[in-house]
Amino acid sequence: MTPTIKARLKWRAGGAAVLFVLIGGLVVLAPRNRLLRRAFSLACWRVLLRGFRLRVEVHGKPLPEAGTLFVANHISWIDIPVLGRVLESGFVARGDMRAWPILGTLTAAYGCLFVEREQRGKAGDQAAALASHLEAERGLILFPEGTTGLGETVLPFRSSLFALVPGVVDGSARVQPVTLRYRHRDGSPLSPEEQRQVAWIGDDELLPHAAALSRMRGLVAEVWFEKPVVGGDRKALARACEAAVAARLREG
Is the per-residue pLDDT at 84 higher than 80? Predict the structure, then answer.
C-alpha cells in the first residue's frame, strides 16, 4: 500500500471519528424521544463504519428485541457500532467504561447498563436495572467472555451475569446467541496477522489500533443470529450460547 493511500484511509477514518463525536453530541442533547435518539444513534454507527470501510452483513433473524438478551462473542471495540447498526438494544458494559472520555457519556446516553462485576453487594440493584430494561421496549446485548479475544475461537462464557437476567431461574428467559466474525469483502477469511489487527486485546491502545484498522482497506462484519436458547439455569444458558458461537466459528 502506498503512503498516499495510507494517508487517505487514515484521514477518512479520522474524519468519520470526528463526525461520530459531533453526531453523538446530539444523542446526548436530544430529548428523551426513542425514535429521535435511534435516528441519531444510527447516524453515528453508519458514519463510523463507513469511515473504516466496514460493511455489515446479517445472517439469520433476530428475535423481537423487547425482552430479549442477545449474547455475543467479543473481538474489538468495533463490535459496538456493528451491533448498534443492526439492533436497537442497549449494551451491558463494565462499570469503568462510564468514566471513559466522550465514549462513556455517549454510551450512557445510548442506553448502556454499567455493571460492577466485582461488587457482589450491588447484585440486587443491578438485577433490578436489567429487569427494568428488558421489560421496556429494548433488549440487551451481553458480551459474556468478559474481555475481547482474537475471534478465531470463543473464550469461556462467564455465567455470573446470566444470574442477573430475569427469567433465568424459572426458565422463561429469552436468550439468543450472536456470532461476530470479520472477513475480507470477497468472503475469504483473514490471515492470523489480519485477525490480530482487528482484535482489540490486552494492552492495545485505542487510537493506534483504530489507525491500523483504518489501513485494512475494507472488511465485512458478519453478524450471525443463532437459534434461540430456551430454558436452563445460568450455567446451562452460558454453555449453550458458548457452544452455538463456537460451532459457527469452527466453520472457518
Answer: yes
